[in-house]
């Protein structure tokens, strides 16, 4: 798994956008006390369920792989001139 440039910042943006998506869809209501890992896992599973991202292979569904998958998802969704893609 090749690390993306700005992967940490892309992940933050993916969580922010993903939480908005989940709330608008009526699938979740996140609390400030929810852990970072819980948000990542829930958003990954929601996006896989909605067929917005390709699921990871069985046995590879761990934290780093989910974080990487979310970063790839948001990197593809951002416009080309976005600062995180530079």
Q: Main traits of this protein?
A:
86 residues; mainly alpha; Four Helix Bundle (Hemerythrin (Met), subunit A); 3 helices; 56% helix
Short account of what is shown:
With 86 residues, this protein is mostly helical. The chain has three helices and no strands. It starts with 6 loop residues before the first helix and ends in a 9-residue tail after the last helix.
Describe the structure.
The protein is an all-alpha fold and 86 residues long. It has one domain (7-78): Four Helix Bundle (Hemerythrin (Met), subunit A) (Up-down Bundle). The protein is globular and about 30 Å long. Helix 1 (7-25) packs across helix 3. It has helices at 7-25, 36-49, 63-77. It is 56% helix and 0% strand.
Mean pLDDT: 91
CATH architecture: Up-down Bundle
Write down the Rg.
13 Å
SSE class: mainly alpha
Q: Please mark out the parts with pLDDT under 50 across 5 or more consecutive residues, or reply none.
A: none
Find the CATH superfamily: Uncharacterised protein PF16691 family
Number of helices: 3
Q: Which class in CATH terms?
A: Mainly Alpha
CATH-derived topology:
Four Helix Bundle (Hemerythrin (Met), subunit A)
- Cα shape: globular
Order of helices and strands: HHH
Beta-strand residue percentage? under 5%
Structural domains: how many = 1
């Amino acid at each position: 798994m090749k690390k993306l440039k700005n992967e940490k910042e892309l992940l933050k943006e993916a969580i922010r956008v993903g939480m908005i998506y989940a709330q608008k869809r009526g699938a979740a209501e996140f609390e400030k006390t929810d852990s970072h890992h819980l948000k990542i896992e829930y958003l990954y599973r929601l996006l896989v369920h909605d067929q917005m991202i390709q699921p990871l292979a069985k046995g590879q569904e761990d934290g780093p792989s989910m974080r990487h998958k979310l970063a790839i998802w948001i990197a593809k969704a951002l416009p080309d001139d976005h600062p995180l893609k530079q």
